[in-house]
Amino acid sequence: xxxxxxxxxxxxxxxxxxxxxxxxxxxxxxxxxxxxxxxxxxxxxxxxxxxxxxxxxxxxxxxxxxxxxxxxxxxxxxx
Length: 79
Description:
single chain
C-alpha cells in the first residue's frame, strides 16, 4: 500500500476513534454529574468498559500512525 494512502487512512481511523471516545466520555460525564446531583445512578459499568475499549482503540490507531510516519522518515536505499 502506498505510504501516503496508508497514513491518510490511519489518520481518518484515528479521528473516527477519537470522535467515538469523546462522545462516550461526554455521556459518562453527564451521567456522573447527574449521579452527583442524586438525579440518577452512577454511570453504568458497561459504559465504562466501552470507553476503556475506545481508548485502547485510540492507542492502537496512534501507534499505527506513528509507525507509518517513522517509515516515511527512514530513507529508502535502493541497491
